Amino acid sequence: MSAKSQHNNILLAIAGFATVVCIVALVGFLALDRDPDVIQGEMEVEEYRVSSKVPGRILELHVKEGDFVHKGDTLAIIDAPEVHAKKVQAESARNAASALHEMADNGAREETIRGAFELLQQAKAANDIARKTYERVNNLFNEGVVTAQKRDEAMAAVNATDAQVKAAQSQYDMARNGARYEERKAASAQVNQASGAIMEVNSYINETVQVAQMDGEVSDIYPKVGELVGTGSPIMSISVMDDMWGTFNIREDQLKGLKVGDQVTVYIPSLDKETKMEIYYLKDQGSYAVWKATKANGQYDQKTFEMKVKPTEKIDGLLPGMSLILRQK
Fold first, then answer.
1. Distance CA 140, CA 135 (A)
2. DSSP string of 102-163?
3. 3-class DSSP assignment, residue 243
4. Which residues of 136-148 are buried (b: 16+ CB within 10 A; e: fewer)?
5. Dihedral sign, CA of 149, 155, 159, 161?
6. pLDDT tens digits, residue range 141-169?
7. If DSSP codes are grouped into helix, strand and coil, which group holds residue 300?
8. Distance (Å, rounded) from C-alpha 256 to C-alpha 261?
9. How far is CA 128 from CA 36, 223, 309, in A?
10. Roughly how many angstroms between the first and final C-alpha of the chain, as a whole number?
11. β-bridge partners, 217
């Protein structure tokens, strides 16, 4: 074979290889261009934690993880003997305040009222004798039989007995009328204060029985029976299964005009099902939370947005944590 023929064969081989490379690259480019962008998210659920206002020991657990509970169902019972002791103290304080209030309303005892009345009568009798004595002494003074000194002494006795009558009358009126208005008001306030203390203790006693606030599924139980829990310590978590949503993290170049209120088609691999979901939340995740720098290629920095969607209809079998697939063409 001549050198020229050999050279032509090499050129043909190079040209054929280049053609194959170009065809493969073109096919790959077209195939990649047709593949949709796949954005993965997951289902999340609203949860609330069950906790008590009073410290105590877990006496009973009426549910287990995975149970579905309804609003008002008993979840756990806490043993708090200190709270019951506080109730006994509060009830004793209320009984004492009630007794003082009744005493203020009823006034003095009958014996005290009768004693004050007798003292009043005694003072009146003394005053009557003093006046009669004064009249006799004054007549004798006018006749010149006694001195002015004797008449003045008799007058002083009248004035003294007048004061005794007034004092006895005040004591009798006080005994008959009972306690002052201010004293009765103060006694009533003490009763109300003691009753408020009992209401407060009763509210703490109610906290020893934990009940479900909403329908949901028991997702986690933290303490075991017999363990101590402090004030506000979580006892269990309840997932509100009627309040689920999906969350996606989307780069801004993948948004492609998506906005709140739009509906998107989401594929659920666990259920092998596509469904419509509505966007109800769309917000950037901050400058450096999930951030992709592309300035090195002469482009721009791309932020990541959090997008939340809710199913437009009830989906049987949908559970928190299931993956969601959003395909964009």
1. 9
2. HHHHH-S-HHHHHHHHHHHHHHHHHHHHHHHHHHHHHHHHHTTSS-HHHHHHHHHHHHHHHH
3. strand
4. ebeeebeeeebee
5. positive
6. 888 878 888 888 888 888 888 888 888 78
7. coil
8. 14
9. 121, 86, 101
10. 55
11. 68, 239
Q: What is the pTM of this model?
A: 0.56
Query: In whole angstroms, what is the distance from residue 69 CA to residue 212 CA?
Result: 7
Of 17, 21, 23, nearest to 9 by C-alpha is 17
CA dihedral for 278, 284, 285, 288, sign (positive or negative): positive
Each residue's pLDDT tens digit, 180-231:
566 667 767 777 777 777 888 888 888 889 999 999 999 999 999 999 998 8
Burial class of 183 by CB neighbour count within 10 A (0 to 12, 13 to 18, 19+): middle
- At residue 262, the 3 state secondary structure works out as coil
Q: Are 309 and 249 in contact (CB under 8 A)?
A: no
Higher pLDDT, 16 or 218: 218
Report the alpha-carbon distance of residue 71 to residue 69 in Å, rounded: 7
Least confident of 87-101, 243-257, 264-278: 87-101
CA 289/CA 3 separation, integer angstroms:
65
